[in-house]
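Handout for the seminar on molecular recognition.
Each group receives one record of this type.
Step one: identify the two inputs.
Step two: read the structure output and locate the region that could contact zinc ion.
Step three: write two sentences on what you found, then compare them with the reference statements printed after the record.
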Amino acid sequence: MPADAPAPGRAVAPLGPVPQAGAVGPLGAWELRDLSHPIADGMPVYPGDPEVHIGAALTLDDDGVDVTDIRMGSHTGTHVDAPSHTVAGGRTMADVALDDLVGAAVVLRVPGLADDEVYGMARLEARGPLPERLPPIVLIDTGWARWFGDERRLRHPALDPDAAGELLRRGMRVLAVDTLSPDPTGGAAFPVHGVVLGSGRLIVENVTGLEQVPDRLQVGFFPLRLAGDGAPVRAVAFLPHGADHAG
Ligand SMILES: [Zn+2]
């Protein structure tokens, strides 16, 4: 930190009045909702993945600055899987553009699933047939995000790979689930990963807060700028101000 850094709260330049939250530029028309889990020391991870360690590296008392040492896997918390996660030679996060992760979305709600249940098109269409053309981002709300801090997270429902293929056929480019994985956790096979990542599309895992957003919305997943097999994201729902948010 430069020695002449301004004191907190002091104006750095005459930029005019500080904008009110939510009124900055064109995004003022949008209300933002966070669809990501917090990243914290010792948080749950996928079995076998690196544990999350967050601790002090430098401290205000000893070093004059607070700096945090963060160690975690590339698939920590709410994150995106690049195709190279399960597909040899698949594209990496270096080849994933922000445009690939921002756009129109639909939330498919599949309440009442049992532990370890595999759900397919019949469950996805229980509330009515899905349109022939889906928006590029499909979020699936199983309600399992509430178990993220509980052992039950491991017994999450899983998507039928045939249904994943059907969603792709209807235009899905990003499959986002509120579970550790769209495939069963603890198994040796990753068929939905194979179908989605194998076609060059993307998977986002561990989204949360879907009960707070409407079925049709705009979503952005903003990954840390890592070049490898995946990256933690800030998952953001963009809701028109004044919209009815009831699911
Ligand atoms: Zn992953």
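Reference statements: Residues 161-169 form the longest helix (9 residues). Residues 1-7 have pLDDT under 50 and may be disordered.
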